[in-house]
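Hello,

Our lab assistant flagged a job as stuck in the queue for most of the afternoon. It eventually completed. Since we weren't sure the result was trustworthy after the delay, we are filing this so someone can double-check. Below is the sequence as submitted and the structure that was eventually returned. Let us know if re-running is recommended.
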Amino acid sequence: MKKIIIVVSLIVVTIFQQSCVKDPLADIEEGKWNNERSVLSIKFKNQVGTAEIQRIDEENGEIYIKLNVDAIPDLSKVELEKILLSYRATCSIQPGSTLDFNNAERKAAITVTSQNGKTREYTIYATEFSETLIGRWTIDDLVLYGGTGPEWWGGAVLSLLDKPWCWVGENLPQAECDNTLTFTMTEISDEGNTSGICVNDPGPDGKYADFIFNGSQNPENPGIDIDVNHFYRQIPKGESHWVRNYSAGTITFTDMDGKTTISVLENPGTYMLFKDNIGNNIEHWITIPHNAFSFQLSGTDDWDHIYSDYDKFVKKTRKFFIMVTKQ
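-- returned structure --
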C-alpha cells in the first residue's frame, strides 16, 4: 500500500512540474521578438519584369517597377496582383487593391507592419514601359552583307534590288518593298519579355517576294535556278507570333508551321560590319536610315567563286537587313 501511495505521489508531482514548464513555442507565436517588416516581392497588373526592392532604413524603403502603360487605361487605378512579406508582417493594401500612380512623380506608398507593430513605409516608383515594336512599319529595302574572304576584297554590302538580273520569277525582291508589318502585343512574361502577333501584309501589289536566284548566274550548275528563301524569307508571310527577349536583345518570329527566325531591331546609324586584320585596310559598313531587322545568316565559304554575285547571294551569305520605317 505504501508503494502505491509513493508512485501516485510521484505522478502528481510530475504532472505539476510539467504544467509549470512554459510552451517553448509561446514566445515565437506571441511575436514580441518579430520586428520584420519587409517586402520580399511584389507584382502589379501589367508590370514588366521584376520589381527592384530596397530597404533604406528601419522606417523607409523604396520599390522600383516598370508598367506597360499601353495596357493600363487609368494610372490612378493600378492593381496589385501579388505581394510577399516577411514572416507574419501585414500590408496596408492587399492583392486586388489599386494604387494611384497618376501624378508627376509616378509614385505611391504602402505601409508594412511587423508582428510586434513596428512599421516601414515603402515608396513605389513606376517608370513607363512602352513596347516600341507596337504599330505599323513599312519595308523600304532588303540589304545583304555577304561574300567569301572579305579580307581579300571578296565581301560587299549590297541591296537585293540593285541586282535585278540575279533574280527570276514573277515576284522579285522588289515585291517586298511595299509590304507593311503590323505588330500588336498580347502578353508580358514575368521575366519582362513581350510577345504578340505580327502581320506581314503584301501591300498594294498583293505580292510577297519569292527569292529565286537566276540560273543564268549559277556558275556551278548553269541554267539551274536556286531557291534561297531559306536565307531571305526571315519575316514570315501573313500572320506570325513574335517574342522580344530584352535580356538577349532579340526578336523571335514563329510562323504558322512552327519555323522560327531570330532578329535584332537595329537603330538608325552607320555601323562597321568588318575590318580586316592583315593590313589591307578593308572595312565594310552599313548605314541604316531609320530602323532595320537584322538576321545572322549561315553561308558557306566558296573560294572557287569569290567576287561573284553567286558567292554573295547564294553561298557566303553573312547578314541580312530588312530596312523599315515606323509610321
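-- support follow-up --
The delay was a queue issue, not a problem with the job. The result is valid. The chain has a mean pLDDT of 91. The longest strand covers residues 135-146.
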